[in-house]
Every structure is written in structure tokens, then in C-alpha cells.
Design goal:
By secondary structure, this protein is mainly beta. It contains five helices and 49 strands. It has a 22-stranded antiparallel barrel. Strand 32 and strand 33 form a beta hairpin. The radius of gyration is 28 Å and the shape is globular.
């Protein structure tokens, strides 16, 4: 095992003498067992912050190598000691950029005489220049207690059959599914029922996944097009405090970063199902990672599969995915990555069935009332990313992308409330092309002892959308409700300045400006007496942001940083609602504040806590199911988040997180149990470990996640029961193969996944408008529900919880063969 270090100094003129830091004592890293088994070598790029006493105050990976090398290099680097950098003989804080090289141990050889002692190294050279603290570039350090990054080594210990399983590494993020697996998840975060993504921004390599003005819901974020094995890292931020984040990043943002290559090409095959329920599923995966040259890395992946679930009406969810990425090292300081992905899927859904229908024995828990529910979708996108470092203290990043999207969804939420003969099934259609780009320039300078980190950036995105809403029966179109052509462009620019006046304090200030321009052409005029729901418009917003980071404790046994954050952000609304009655605001402002701390103790215990508050001007939305608007007052949310991780042994770790949230309308602080479906408590955690076993490495993870009881209705009368799910992952990795067993809902809990407060009518229930005093004797809408009153009086259906059941005990086996 060898070590290579090369501090990089930025020179700005002949003034005082600067002596760079020099290694006083270094620690050897433990070779990762699975890498040693596979005979892998690597170099991990690191940036170390060395304080005035020569100790490593911070360490982060700048060039990851995977396979456990990153963690091993960081653990060793944190134990280094240095002769500190000096200015005119006075110690100063500095940053060192280096590569930690891992080389396989040589084979045993006959004893040889000991080598002569090495020559005494010459004293470190000095250079002329200002107080510069060894300026190098790496990723920005954390600027909020609730922000962090997770490497693939962590989520490989969890049951992973889709990207949704990877997203669960985000503390406080709970996801559920309804109306078939091929549809985007329903997301809960920071007191938000974010629906399918309205207040949670999801990106893939910086490319937005969310769809504005979507046929089904604003910000619709379907991650099913991603092959989970291609994800290398998950970057998590919460709150509107970050200048480079725009639309939908109010509760938070998750960026999935894909790999550039794999160590080995492979072929995998998986099978699974729920014993006693539904039909089996399968999954096939092919990964090729050829070596074209030293400067070219490539990754080609393909996945096919079918999932049926435990439902009486099998989902028949067929999936076809491609992911191709080629990365060129154009020069030592520049790279170019070209990425293409394609996805197509179709499915049937069990739908959201009323709880009273199960209570009455009309359908089973896994039954379906409208078996025609489901849909099909496709997404194809191409992107080019460029990164260049013009100097040691600057960096340029640019990204352009374009894609096409198709979506057809058949749903039936109200059953037979509106049309007692044909039923209330609807079809939502979305056809769009989307394209955009972003660029940023970052430069690091120092004036005296003060460090300045400046970033300028701009982003633009355009969507050309054709949307339709139909009344259907068994997927046959009966009448059209809406038909729109929508064109919208969102452009944003920002400046971010991070100032480090002292080694123990960082101050961050930013300003972001966004402008939305749109045009709506409604081609279906359902009511000739109303003005056309068409037009052009625009909206803009300035969003200031500020943060401060204080290094409260900086010792070998404990490091603690405290954070204070403020920021304004926004989510856009469906622009069709700007020409509806009542009209919605195209941009909704969000204001967030947060205080928190993050610490590491004894080199093995991580602990973070954050208190936060977030307000929105309104939550008025476009209702894609009816083609109308839904009006809401301003809202407020606040809460506490705690997360921790403890390394019990070098091979076993425990982690957990808890969130407590209160949500309410700002104009009515006594609104029952809080905002409808807003989560009050969430939790997740578990045990994970990996250990050498024979010629390979065994791994295991026992995980749980849950959400507490919450109000389904605004007045708190109807409740959505909470749940906790326990999952298990077992795996074994050999040089030539990998086998994994995932068990979902290990304890076979009987609980509901997605839940909604819905007014609906079953065929067997009284006709809409029936006088309440003439309802059949003993008629009831069931427990946890109530009779709804029609607008003109009389019976208006039953209001209660409609739900999609969680999967029962489900097992999946995945076997992978490495073919090179």
C-alpha cells in the first residue's frame, strides 16, 4: 500500500513567504476486504483541511473509487498529522489535495538484507505569495445540519429492487405507492404530503425528474426509469437554503448521481413474489463496462422485468430500461460525459379501494373495483455534461439535456358518484418534450486570512406539453373534459458567496432570481358560457438565502459543527390554473429557517439534529383529476429531526432517525388535527454489516421505516392509520458471483400503504341526491367515515379512507454472475 500527496498552492504575487504543510505522521489504511478478495487497486482523491496545529480538521473525498476504498482512505487520512503551513513563520490553516493509493501486497519473497536508511528529507521549500491557505477545489462542505451525501456502500445493505428503495436513505422521507407500481410514488417529507413531487425536487445527475404542469399532478416525479445499480451516490438537502436549487425544492431535494463505470461486467436474474398472494415476478439485468482506453470510461446497462404484486388483479407491470454513459478525460483538468437513458412500462392497478368495501366483504384487501385502472408510460433522455478546472482555484460546470415523455393513466377514485351507469373512470394523457441546461462557475480566492468561495450559475428549462383529460369506461374514451397545449419556460440565475473569516466560522450568502413564462391553449371548451381557459402569462421571484456554520468543537475525540440557515424558495403551480376560476398563482413562495448541529464522536458515532420551520404563501393547486382548481390558505410547518449512526464494530453499524412535525393553516391555527395527510411522525433505522466469510464477503441489513397516525381530513375526524414495515437483506459477494435475498414486510404486517380521504359511491349504495331521511334503514358508511352531503342536499356519497394495501411478506432473490 502506498501513499502519494501533492499539496497544490495558488500563487498571487510576491509578498510574504508561505511554507506549505508537510506530513509529520501518517496512518496506513486497512485494505477493503472485498477489494482485496477481487484483487482490485485504486487511488482515492482526498482534500484535507489542516489546522494551525497540524491536525486534520476535515477530510472529504474528491475522486471516489468505490469498493470500500473511499471509507478506508478517509479513516486513515483523519489520523494524519502535519507540520502546519506557515506564513512568515506563523502557522496558518491550509487545505491539501492528495491521492491515497491502494496497491495489492506483493507475493512473499525470500528475505533480503535491510535497505540502507533513507536520506534525511530536505526542509520544505518556501514560496512567495499572500496568505493563501493552500487553495484547492473540492465539493462544498455541508452548510446545513440536515444535508449530507450517501455512498452506494450504504444502500447496498438495504433491499433494493428499485430507485425508490435507494431514496429511503433520506431521513424522514417516506414513500408509498397507489394505482399500480408504474406510477410515481407518493412522497412524504417535512410535514408535506408532497403528492408525486410538488414540494420535493428529484434529480438524476442534475437533470430534473419532476414534470411541471403534468396531467396527473404538479411536479410528477417518476423515478421508475432509473436502473438502481447505476446509482453511485445520493446527495440530500432539505429546505430552500441552497442557491443552485429552484423549482420544487421547498421541503427538500435529492440528487441521484450515477456511476461512470463498473469494475466488472455482469448478468443478473431475479425472481420473487408474495407466497399465497398474487403471481411471481422476475427481473433481468445486464451490465457491460468495457475499457476503451485509459482516458475513456463506459457503462451500458439494460433491465427487463415484470411485477405482479399480491393483487387479485395482477399488475402485469412490464419494464424495459436502458442506461448508457461514456466519460472522456479530455485533459487532466477537464471531462466530458454523454449519457442516454430509455424506459417504457405498462401496468394495471388495483386502485384505491374504499375501506368500507373491504369491511362489507365486497372485495378482498387485495381486490379491485375497477380492473381497468393502470396505464403506460415512456421516457427517453440524452444529456452532455462538461467539467473543467481552468486554474487550481476555479471550476466550470455545464450541462445540457433533452428528452421526450409519454404518459397515459386510467384511474377511478369516486367509482360511481358522478356516472352511476358507466362509472367515473378517467384517462389522463401527457405528451411532452423537455429540454434545458445549466452552467456554473466557481472560484476560490483569499485576501489575507479570509477565504472567499464564489459561485455564479444559471439554469433554464422548457416544456412543450400536450395534455388531455377524458371520461372513460374500461379504457374506452367516452367524452373529453380538457385538452391543452402548454408551453412553459423557467429560467433562473444565482450568485453564492461563502466567506471563511476564521477557521472556525463560515458565512454563506446567496441571491437567486427566477422567471416563469407560459402559454396555455385550451382546445376543449366544455362550457361555452365561460371565458376560454387560455392565455399567456409570466411570474418572477427573488429568493435571498443565508447560512452560517460554526465549528464548535474540533478535537480528535469529537468534532461538532453548528448550523443556522435561512432561505426563500418556491414551487411552481400548474400554469393551466392561471386561467381557471379561481385562478392560482403561478409561483408559490416558501420561506424556511433551520438551526441544527452535526457531530462525530470517538471516530465511530455520528449524530445530527435540526429544528426547522417552513411557510408557504398558499397551497392552491390544479386538480388534474377534475380539470379544476383547489383553493388553499397559507400554511406553516415546523418540526424536529434527529439522526444517528454508530459503528458497533468495524463490520457492524446501527443507525436511526426520527422526525416530529406539526403542520397547520397559518390563518387558522386550530384546524383539527392539522393539514390533511401531513405526516406527524416518521422513523427509520436498522442494523447493517459486512464481514469476510470464506473466499468472499457476507453482508446483511435489517431495516425498518414507518409513519404515525395522521389526519386524513382537514377537521381531523377521519384518520389515516400509521404503520411500520420491517425489511431484511442478506447477500454474499464472491469474485465471480453475487447472490442476494430481500424480504419485504418481514413480519407480514397487515397495513395500508397509500391512503386518501375520498368521497365515493359504490354501486350498492343509494343514488346521489337521495334525501338523507330516506336512506335505507341501518345504512352506514362504515367505521372511520361519514355520509357526505351533495351540493343540492341529500346523499352525496360516503367520505372515508380509500387505500392501496402494503405488500404482505414478499421475498426476492437476485443472482449476479461477473463475466470478466
Amino acid at each position: 500500500m502506498a501513499f502519494a500527496g501533492s499539496p497544490v498552492l495558488a500563487q498571487q504575487g510576491p509578498q510574504p513567504q508561505i511554507t506549505p504543510p508537510a506530513i509529520r505522521e501518517r496512518a496506513e489504511a486497512t485494505y477493503p476486504p472485498d477489494a482485496l478478495r477481487d484483487r482490485l487497486e485504486a487511488t482515492v482523491g482526498l482534500e484535507l483541511v489542516v489546522d494551525e496545529r497540524g491536525r486534520v480538521a476535515d477530510a472529504r473525498v474528491t475522486a471516489p473509487a468505490g469498493h470500500g476504498f473511499d471509507e478506508a482512505a478517509l479513516a486513515a487520512a483523519r489520523r494524519f498529522t502535519f507540520e502546519p503551513a506557515r506564513k512568515d513563520g506563523v502557522p496558518i490553516r491550509s487545505a491539501v489535495q492528495m491521492g491515497y493509493e491502494f496497491h495489492l501486497p506483493p507475493p512473499p519473497s525470500p528475505p533480503v538484507p535491510p535497505p540502507p536508511p533513507p536520506p534525511v528529507p530536505p526542509p520544505p521549500e518556501t514560496q512567495q505569495g499572500p496568505d493563501q491557505s493552500t487553495l484547492v477545489l473540492a465539493r462544498r462542505p455541508l452548510s446545513a445540519a440536515s444535508s449530507f451525501s450517501v455512498q452506494d456502500r450504504e444502500f447496498s445493505l438495504r433491499p433494493v429492487a428499485s430507485v425508490q428503495d435507494i431514496l429511503r436513505v433520506t431521513p424522514g422521507l417516506v414513500m408509498v405507492q397507489h394505482s399500480g407500481g408504474g406510477k410515481a410514488n407518493q412522497y412524504f417529507l417535512r410535514g408535506f404530503d408532497a403528492d408525486h413531487g410538488t414540494d420535493l425536487a428529484l434529480d438524476l445527475d442534475g437533470i430534473p425528474i419532476n414534470m411541471p404542469s403534468h396531467a396527473h399532478g404538479q411536479g410528477f416525479a417518476d423515478t421508475n426509469f432509473i436502473i438502481p445499480e447505476t446509482v453511485e451516490r445520493v446527495e440530500i438537502t432539505k429546505g430552500p437554503y441552497f442557491a443552485d436549487q429552484g423549482d420544487f425544492a421547498t421541503a427538500g431535494r435529492v440528487n441521484l448521481v450515477t456511476r461512470s463505470d463498473f469494475e466488472h461486467s455482469s448478468i443478473g436474474l431475479g425472481f420473487g413474489g408474495s407466497p399465497g398472494h398474487g403471481q411471481p415476478e422476475y427481473r433481468g439485468l445486464l451490465i457491460a463496462s468495457p475499457r476503451f482506453s485509459e482516458s475513456t470510461r463506459a457503462l451500458f446497462a439494460a433491465e427487463i422485468g415484470q411485477e405482479n404484486g399480491p393483487f387479485d388483479n395482477p399488475e402485469g407491470w412490464n419494464k424495459y430500461k436502458l442506461f448508457n454513459k461514456v466519460t472522456f478525460q479530455l485533459a487532466p483538468t477537464s471531462t466530458l460525459a454523454i449519457t442516454e437513458s430509455s424506459y417504457a412500462g405498462d401496468w394495471h392497478g388495483s386502485g384505491q379501494i374504499p375501506a368500507r368495501a373491504v369491511e362489507q366483504g365486497l372485495v378482498s384487501r387485495f381486490g379491485s373495483i375497477d380492473p381497468a385502472e393502470g396505464g403506460d408510460t415512456a421516457r427517453h433522455q440524452l444529456s452532455v455534461a462538461y467539467r473543467m478546472r481552468p486554474t487550481e482555484g476555479s471550476e466550470l460546470r455545464a450541462l445540457v439535456y433533452a428528452g421526450t415523455y409519454r404518459f397515459n393513466l386510467f384511474s377511478n377514485f369516486t367509482l360511481y358518484e358522478n356516472d352511476p351507469v358507466n362509472g367515473d373512470e378517467i384517462e389522463q394523457i401527457d405528451r411532452r418534450t423537455f429540454y434545458g441546461g445549466q452552467a456554473s462557475y466557481r472560484v476560490v480566492n483569499a485576501i489575507g486570512r479570509v477565504r472567499f468561495d464564489t459561485t455564479l450559475g444559471a439554469q433554464v428549462r422548457s416544456d412543450d406539453v400536450h395534455g388531455e383529460l377524458w371520461h372513460t369506461r374500461a379504457r374506452t374514451q367516452l367524452s373529453q373534459t380538457r385538452g391543452d397545449d402548454v408551453h412553459e419556460t423557467l429560467a433562473g440565475a444565482y450568485v453564492n458567496e461563502e466567506v471563511t473569516p476564521w477557521p472556525w466560522l463560515r458565512i454563506d450568502g446567496a441571491l437567486r432570481s427566477d422567471f416563469l413564462a407560459f402559454a396555455v391553449d385550451n382546445r376543449v371548451q366544455a362550457d361555452p358560457t365561460q371565458p376560454p381557459a387560455s392565455g399567456v402569462g409570466g411570474a418572477q421571484q427573488l429568493s435571498p438565502k443565508a447560512s452560517a456554520v460554526l465549528t464548535a468543537i474540533d478535537r480528535r475525540a469529537a468534532q461538532v459543527e453548528a448550523y443556522v440557515n435561512f432561505g426563500e424558495g418556491y414551487h411552481t403551480n400548474d400554469v393551466r390554473g392561471a386561467f381557471a376560476s379561481p385562478a392560482i398563482t403561478p409561483i408559490t413562495r416558501a420561506v424556511g429557517e433551520e438551526v441544527g448541529a452535526r457531530g462525530r464522536f470517538l471516530g465511530r458515532w455520528d449524530l445530527a439534529a435540526a429544528l426547522w420551520r417552513l411557510t408557504l404563501d398558499n397551497e392552491t393547486t390544479w386538480d388534474g383529476d377534475n380539470g379544476t382548481t383547489s383553493v388553499s390558505d397559507p400554511t406553516e410547518r415546523y418540526g424536529l429531526e434527529i439522526e444517528t449512526r454508530f459503528e458497533i464494530t468495524p463490520w457492524l453499524a446501527a443507525d436511526g432517525d426520527v422526525t416530529l412535525t406539526h403542520s397547520q393553516f397559518s390563518t387558522d391555527r386550530e384546524n383539527g388535527g392539522g393539514l390533511a395527510l401531513a405526516p406527524r411522525q416518521t422513523c427509520s433505522g436498522g442494523l447493517s454489516g459486512r464481514h469476510e466469510l470464506g473466499p468472499g464477503v457476507a453482508r446483511a441489513g435489517l431495516r425498518f421505516y414507518g409513519i404515525g397516525n395522521r389526519s386524513a381530513s382537514e377537521d381531523g375526524v377521519i384518520t389515516a392509520p400509521g404503520f411500520t414495515q420491517v425489511d431484511l437483506h442478506l447477500g454474499y459477494r464472491h469474485r465471480r458471483f453475487d447472490v442476494a435475498l430481500d424480504v419485504l414486510n418481514l413480519l407480514d404486517g397487515d397495513f395500508r400503504s397509500a391512503q386518501f380521504d375520498t368521497i365515493s359511491r359504490l354501486r350498492t349504495e343509494p343514488a346521489i341526491g337521495t334525501p338523507l331521511n330516506r336512506l335505507p334503514p341501518g345504512f352506514s358508511c362504515g367505521s372511520n367515515s361519514r355520509v357526505a352531503v351533495a351540493p343540492g342536499g341529500g346523499f352525496g356519497g360516503c367520505e372515508g379512507v380509500d387505500f392501496t394495501p402494503a405488500f404482505p411478506f414478499t421475498a426476492r432473490v437476485m443472482a449476479t454472475l461477473y463475466i470478466d
